Amino acid sequence: MPITSKNISTNDLQLYLEDDISDDKKRLIFEIENKNNDGKTLTSQETKLINELNILRNVDDFFEKAINNQPPMPKELQNEIDKRLDLVFDKEPSLIQSFLNIKHLISGGIGAFSAIVAMLFYTTIYTSSAYRLVESTSITKGTNLEISNINFPNQWLIKNDIAFALSFKLNEKEINTNGDVKVEIGDTLIFNLIPLKSRKIDIIYISSDGEKTTLYEKQKIQKGKKFLSKDLRIGEPIGTDKIQILEDGKIILEKNIIVVE
Amino acid sequence: MKNYNKINIDKEKRKEREEFNYLFKKLTARIYTQLYQSFNPKKDDKVSLQENAQDIAQDTIMAYLKKIEEGDIIKNREAWCTTVAKNKTIDFFRKKRPERISNYENSDDEENESKNFNKLEAIYEDKKNQDKSFYDILDDECIHKLNKNHKKTLLLIMQGEKTREIAEVLSIPKNTILTWATNAKRQYSECMGFS
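The joint structure predicted for all components is written out below.
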């Protein structure tokens, strides 16, 4: 039996305002509202519903307005938030466009903004497939080099004021840097790094057999600028490798990479 | 193109700033309501109670920013902040009351509560005053005219809770809460002269 305005109770109207009502009732109330807005003649039952709805809605609107009439956030907190917004938004407009498109994939939070700054500059680390060693430690700063080949990360690990994300190069697969990172032999990774404060760091790759490779030594990284990255091609052996970022010999960020066949 | 981007960035920044500002106000309103109901403040103590609510809201947003920086992914900013604010408010109760609020009367007794409310001077005479802040609403006689259940439900609705959530928290059937909510709104609206 189709729903009519007689089937709509005041409680339903409250649920309608909370957007917690069945679709058929929601559609009917919506239609009656539209009819009223268009100036069409309403039945007495419909008029009663609209009046009830307005009473309930007026109270919500009043509360909403009262919340808005409260004093704004303190200057100190506003400055803190502005600092982070400026960090992201003022750097590179073209990348902000990318950021806006993928914003929902990352998180609703301000941390996502910080992480996005990591896209501002681009470099790669090449390693030999056989030895997984860095072929060249030269660093190329620039904007958006080979950008079309990169699978942009959508998950970032942010620790000790550094945003870090791994992503595949030339590969459609995505990596969740916050979860277990599994890669296959032959995959090519890049990592994106962005500090929230300038510092000098070392980056070490430790293979599952214990072999350590220093990718960067006393590398200066600047606040808000993306760290340099070359390709990192994954080779044997299989097992759990590690990327470690150190400052003054202390590990400030570590990520395990599980290498499978 | 550059100008276009600049406009969009400014717009996004403004939007984010506004969202944070609104979140702050909403959290402050929630916290203040909880503090108000627990401490039943005297008129002179209200300002410092408002400051306490603002401090807790600020701490909550700062904790959110810190959490994000540490690498945590928080999908629902408002839900996370609401939970943290709730916990921080409970911590606030547990600790020794700061000097600021040392003079508050603490009473759960509904009768005493309404007697105390009656002693309060009305800050705004005009019931239709649309520029009331959330702080003022709690002092409004129209709120205190409601019966205990209606008042409790309406205060939760004011804080942004849905009837489904209120029913869960109070362990009362949803339909009962819905009836209280709609009756409370109708009486409040009439008292305030909305309709």
